[in-house]
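Tokens for chain A. Residues wanted.
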């Protein structure tokens, strides 16, 4: 069955790697994730956002994820699979996911006051732990779009707060803001593309060995952006986080790295290419199939060259 994140994070911390947390909204994305993880023998966190729930229906997504355990075995390897709620925004939503079979949830109180974040997160932890479900909290605000919460400017996580936060809430992992952001437009032209690994190091000193999570960690591969634009797309100034910086982060206490936008780019590039080059195609399998192949390659690349979770399943 599905597993929670506790043991996976403990192993990732001691092994100096990070677990991929890939978002999914449909069958092809899920297939690509599982194929990539089976082939590289990587554990995986399947993430369902609020947007995914309303797009694809939470019940269907949950059954797909549960089926993925058997699907992986059929493909040749039983890998640890976590089903995780991404950016839960209320106790009720987290409770619903916990009661219906998610093995992990995020409660994102990062936009609240510190005190309100602590009390909401603690409430979710108390309920989740009765069900052996792990909880991710967040401190600090990412720039860009946090689902419905729009933060125009990021507020880096304050290292002085992390020990108090994890102590008071009992969370199993902590998402931090060190300059990553959601979406495909992470830096303005001319802006320094560096994330604050110095703040990460400071946070690690305060809570040694505690699992850290990075959101907004897509790299926005320029070959994909160019492919999209070469086939009728219009993505201007799309940039992401350098893979070298993420690789460095993965060697630290960062043990979950969230990637969604890069997958969207890979799918869109493949679909655009097929529809552009073969205008006679109208069978969705003829463009979603290549999109799935491209996604699988992208996910394998991340696992092997960025996260280092290959061979850890
Ligand atoms: O954190 C954002 C994730 O990429 C999910 O995005 O809310 O559009 O599904 P979404
Ligand atoms: P990206 O938009 O950088 O892929 O981040 C995804 C994410 O953080 C999901 O929670
Ligand atoms: Na790590
Ligand atoms: Zn996120």
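Reply:
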């Amino acid at each position: 069955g599905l597993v929670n994140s506790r043991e996976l994070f403990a192993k990732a911390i001691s092994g100096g790697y990070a677990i991929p947390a890939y978002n999914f909204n449909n069958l092809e994305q899920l297939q690509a994730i599982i194929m990539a993880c089976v082939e590289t023998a990587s554990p995986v966190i399947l993430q369902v956002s609020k947007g995914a729930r309303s797009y694809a229906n939470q019940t269907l997504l949950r059954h797909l994820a549960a089926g993925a355990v058997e699907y992986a075995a059929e493909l040749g390897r039983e890998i640890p699979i976590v089903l995780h709620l991404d950016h839960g925004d209320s106790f009720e939503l987290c409770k619903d996911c916990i009661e219906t079979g998610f093995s992990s949830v995020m409660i994102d109180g990062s936009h609240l006051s510190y005190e309100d974040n602590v009390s909401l997160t603690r409430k979710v932890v108390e309920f989740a732990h009765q069900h052996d479900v792990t909880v991710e909290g967040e401190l600090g605000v990412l720039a860009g779009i946090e689902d419905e919460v729009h933060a125009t400017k990021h507020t880096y996580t304050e290292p002085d707060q992390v020990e108090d936060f994890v102590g008071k809430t009992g969370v199993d992992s902590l998402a931090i803001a060190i300059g990553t952001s959601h979406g495909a437009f992470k830096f303005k032209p001319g802006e320094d593309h560096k994330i604050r690994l110095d703040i990460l190091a400071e946070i690690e000193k305060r809570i040694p060995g505690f699992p850290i999570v990075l959101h907004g960690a897509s790299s926005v591969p320029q070959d994909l952006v160019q492919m999209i634009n070469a086939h009728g797309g219009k993505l201007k100034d799309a940039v992401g986080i350098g893979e070298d910086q993420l690789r460095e982060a993965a060697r630290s206490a960062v043990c979950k790295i969230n990637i969604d936008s890069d997958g969207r780019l890979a799918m869109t590039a493949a679909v655009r290419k097929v529809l552009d080059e073969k205008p006679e195609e109208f069978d969705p399998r003829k463009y979603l199939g290549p999109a799935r192949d491209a996604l699988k390659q992208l996910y394998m690349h991340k696992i092997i060259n960025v996260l280092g979770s290959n061979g850890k399943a």
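The pocket of 1,3-dihydroxyacetonephosphate (ligand 2) is lined by residues 23, 86-87, 182-183, 215-218, 258-262 (CB under 6 Å). Residues 146-150 have pLDDT under 50 and may be disordered.
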